[in-house]
């Protein structure tokens, strides 16, 4: 029997991408689409590309807990800071939840306060959350009630870095990450700063050293065994719609060879259908756009005793909605790739 | 002695472009920059590219009529509908004005109401206005107190079409204009519709048959002698920052030859420094970006007894600030090209 | 049993898109991929996005007729002028063929010579060809041996125009079409003119009145009953990767109403799964990218007794590979939408 | 009296930008434009934006040494590897030369061979060359016969880094540079890899650790006193036309404060008209496009004892033609900013 799904925050870009993926998922049905600011409008009014598809005529609605009583799983695709107002009631109602925002990724509420510039008002629920990085956490994900779906930048950085730091091949301190993101990562919003004229034909770094994915990356690396890890992370906004390019620099531990690096990655990901290892090949964003893949390349730079690692993802898929579906597949006992190839 | 200039609405894209051009104009000094929503901020806060230039540190201010008492000329670079609240007092104060918006381009207030969807509240001042198309109106511009600077689309359409219709070489009825504009034409504003993610990698037509430059084009053609002219005009928004491409179709009058078309254009514009005639060459937007030129090409399409005319301008320069400076040059007795080459 | 498919010219953009679509088509298997200049390379060398998919490791090969002896259907995705060297032998071998190029679209070899600037060297095979516009030719397509898959611009123009001209609601003479195409329409080729730096942030019209889709559009309109039709067609190259926007202008016959226009379109396409009629809604390219849909909008412009029709397609899908699959579905008795939704 | 200038390799992007700048330089006249592949064509055939300017009608010519006998200064704007075939004869003829390519930037011909993959065939002339970074080498530039104009990436990295490493505030080893360049940096050339369809909406790193600007950066840092410096440099190609964004990471020496960093930069560049120091402000490419400015920002990242430095330039101006004019100004005793503001 198909699983019944609702989405809270269905009208943003991640919500729309979830919807597109669920359309092609054979084991789910979409029940309710909640979107406060668009309540009463149809899906294809906001996203005309859904015209004449099965979901095109569905109306966005105001959320009410009674409406989801028969659902098997709830996606929350709201901006960070909003999920925490929904999660407690959903948990108490026994619902399984995948939160695509940042409210339940950090265990440390001090770090939450520092990086998100707000108080966490559902702190007692944080320990319900399992970090939804399927390649590293599949077992716990399968059993979880609440999934904190990873941040887009964090996904692009963690998948390449985790095998290297947890195997002790690189120094866990001082890892440097320079990432470039397409503009859809900033969400569907009205602002001069995100207008075409301001963003086109330019690049800007932002939140240098203060981006909220910094503690997320550090927390997860520490959690998987490389304690004391610190990273330097600089995101840049570039004029493309979708995709994240991450270029990472780590110091090699004495004697680490290229073969060890390659083996650590290939061993770890031999059974991971969405991780493509390019060796010395160089990733390009266009190769993963509209897919759930992450492509990873690496080069040893002997001159400075570094490994340079590059990765690409589609921020709306492997960095958001696709990974959420992958988590759903694990939670529901579906094939991990269902609806994603 | 240098002319003293102030700008009302200086913080938008046309205002900033005016400022850039005035920086290099040897016979003017910038006095005040008025911008209500940015009052108190410096020019280089809003537009960091002006850092370390002479105008970078100027503060935007609230407008007050006393501040411009010594100015020789006032530019108004506000959205249509706002200039009409300033113009009466400026006229009464004896100031010369160049309005880059649409409030004084249409003589017919009914048409103004229909296309702008608002009432005109300074109707008695419309007849003070001279339409600021220098290639056609230089004499009246030189003597004018109030200039209605032409609309961007109107400029791109009128300069190629006027010689053809006024010489009777083409039918003045049923001229069809399909134009494509860069996004800066929509101004500096916060809206989902103009966000990078929504505008990038797509095209959309808008205000089909209802755009306010339709009556502007018709009015001006009629005014220069081809009465009864009607045009069909469809603008499109495309993912570039600056530039307008206009492709126009007109029916040839019986027997009109390619040579007559060419002669009409070359005769008319032999003394016009900013009109470049390409003959059967095809214009490209990149050739006029950041310049005050208009490039015009034409082909006879015998099969349908048409002439196909194409033109390109930079919407912020020949379509706005550059043409305004050109008008100022004529009004002040400067060389027409001063500050614009 | 699955149909065995090979592609001649598999390494270009249309070939790669065919391959992507066939990957998800449940009733076909890909046999050979022929690509002279890339022979010996793997699919994922040229198109790394196919890594780890079933077709990623397939090698491009030199064509030989013996290799396709067991195939049910051959796609030819070569530049115009090349298919005619393959088709005769394939026809004689009894193969069914879908040619995505322009060699078999025009019945008139004089027109072929004039617009393609070359001789047709397989003229006796032209009359085998059926024009592959499924919404208008489904019966003949199902039985055809050789399909001339429509040109991208022609598809975007014909689907909206055919119902209007064949029903006599608009004048069939003097229809004007202004189209804008993404750069992938020019194919995968090395040229300064198509380099990013030359194409970005600009627009240019090209082949004004001389583009080879002009006679294609006229031929097909005449063939479906509106004889004597002539069109004026101007294509423009714009800085997007995929998509075609067509804005079309036709004179209304006396008394034609908006309702008649709407009824002509809705009646004609009530059973057409890939045609979406927007009425006075305005199409946008982004709504059809990566799909086989065409979106069509229309407005009556009374002032000039015109109907203004707009359409959007993805040039590589409904304008090439998707429509080819749609034709294959009809030829093989599959569901028309198989592999395309 | 005006200086007479010729350009060898005038038809590429740097050559065209030189030409545009020289047009507005009051103390020079353009004598010959040499461009082998475009010989016989006019400037405005290749670059229609020069139509109706004083240089539009100049014909590109084949080079001959006799033609430049009266010139005061020769710019060479050829791809690396070609200047070395011209320089010896020019030097012997007593000409002053500014080479915009890479042939005379590296003192070490082994490094030249390794990074450029070719032999240097004018090695004995390398020691004539002065590295043309005006902010650091003005005295030697003024007296030089041969200027090696800095590489675009090198300029964006060296100007921010030199004050920090030479003052001993940061470790000179292990500096990491991640740069993003617009596509014009690859020159005017026909290749599939640089076609719009391949470059648009994507990012790719290239020549990771092997780019020829790596030894250039190291050489210059070593030359100015911080010996033993090694850098890790990763360039990325991004879909914009002009501009380079460089994000750099250096380890702070014990006790280095933000104030010391700021002072080192502001002291060094207090008299440098093209260096704009933003402090904790973050540079954006659009603020320097079409200018000779470099904007530099910096942040202390205490957590990892690093300073993160960001810079932006226009690769064709401060990264090529503009800096070349700046060097010319110094060589000829003109004002440093002449023709550049």
Explain how this protein is built.
4 copies of one chain form a homotetramer. Chain A is an alpha/beta fold and 341 residues long. Chain A folds into 2 domains: 3-150 and 319-332, NAD(P)-binding Rossmann-like Domain (Rossmann fold, 3-Layer(aba) Sandwich); 153-314, Dihydrodipicolinate Reductase, domain 2 (2-Layer Sandwich), CATH 3.30.360.10. Chain A is built from 10 helices and 13 strands. In chain A, the strands form 2 sheets. A 7-stranded mixed β-sheet of chain A has the order 8-9-7-10-13-12-11. Chain A has a 6-stranded parallel β-sheet with strand order 2-1-3-4-6-5. Chain A is globular, with a radius of gyration of 20 Å. The two termini of chain A are 22 Å apart. In chain A, 60% of the residues are buried. Chains in contact: A-B, A-C, A-D, B-C, B-D, C-D. Chain A binds chain D through residues 173-174, 176, 178, 180, 198, 201-206, 208-209, 230-232, 234, 236, 238-243, 245, 247, 249, 282-286, 289, 299, 301, 303-304, 306, 308, 310, 312, and chain D through 173-174, 176, 178, 180, 198, 201-206, 208-209, 230-232, 234, 236, 238-243, 245, 247, 249, 282-286, 289, 299, 301, 303-304, 306, 308, 310, 312.
Outline the biggest β-sheet of chain A. Answer: 7 strands, mixed
Q: Count of DSSP helices of chain A?
A: 10
Fourth-level CATH superfamily of the largest domain in chain A: NAD(P)-binding Rossmann-like Domain
**Average of pLDDT of chain A:** 97
User: What's the CATH class of the largest domain in chain A, please?
Assistant: Alpha Beta
Query: H/E order of the elements of chain A?
Result: EHEHEHEHEHEHEHEHEEHEEEH
Please state the overall shape of chain A, judged from the principal axes of the Cα atoms: globular
Instruction: Could you tell me the CATH topology label of the largest domain in chain A.
Output: Rossmann fold
How many domains in all of chain A?
2
CATH architectural label of the largest domain in chain A: 3-Layer(aba) Sandwich
Major interchain interface with per-chain residue totals: A-D, 42 and 42 residues
For the CA atoms, what is the radius of gyration of chain A? 20 Å
Name the beta content range of chain A.
15-25%
Number of strands of chain A: 13
| Oligomer classification | homotetramer
Widest β-sheet, arrangement of strands of chain A: 8-9-7-10-13-12-11
Q: Report the end-to-end length of chain A measured between terminal Cα atoms.
A: 22 Å
Structural class of chain A: alpha/beta
Low-confidence stretches of chain A: none
